[in-house]
Design a protein that fits this description.
Largest sheet: 3 strands, antiparallel
CATH superfamily: Winged helix-like DNA-binding domain superfamily/Winged helix DNA-binding domain
Structural class: mainly alpha
Shape: globular
Strand content: 5-15%
Order of helices and strands: HHHEHHEEH
Number of helices: 6
Number of strands: 3
Oligomer: single chain
Radius of gyration: 14 Å
Distance between the termini: 26 Å
Length: 128
């Protein structure tokens, strides 16, 4: 799937007129691995203010391989994360070494809505 077909304008400065429509549109276009990546950042299972989590890339890669048992290469994961950054669902931390990413605070509820909608659309609610 090309990035042009996946891009949905959800910038933080935009006043989203119909957020439910945007949530549904994104949930239909993302795949399981994309949603699992977003879950790592936006759904930690901990109470506020620890309900979101930034990650440095090597640690995220290790957790995705061991905890989530995803069979994905390092470069493939990096490309997926960069796609999520272009979609403005994640933010790359500037001048970080190793490269780090973080959730966008203004979009926490929106991204959680996308994740939930994805699981509902695919009949996977028991895995939430």
């Amino acid at each position: 799937m090309s990035n042009e077909n996946l891009l949905v304008n959800v910038s933080e400065n935009e006043n989203i007129e119909n957020p439910i429509e945007k949530i549904s549109e994104l949930a239909e276009k993302l795949d399981f691995i994309d949603v699992q990546i977003l879950r790592k950042f936006y759904m930690t299972g901990k109470p506020f203010p620890n309900d979101t989590q930034p990650y440095c890339f090597p640690l995220l890669y290790k957790e995705m391989k061991t905890s989530n048992r995803l069979k994905i290469g390092m470069e493939a994961l990096r490309k997926r994360i960069n796609k999520l950054v272009k979609l403005k669902l994640l933010e790359k931390v500037k001048h970080s070494n190793p490269t780090s990413y973080k959730p966008i605070k203004e979009k926490v509820e929106f991204v959680r809505g996308v994740i939930l909608k994805f699981f509902i659309l695919n009949g996977l609610t028991k895995f939430l």
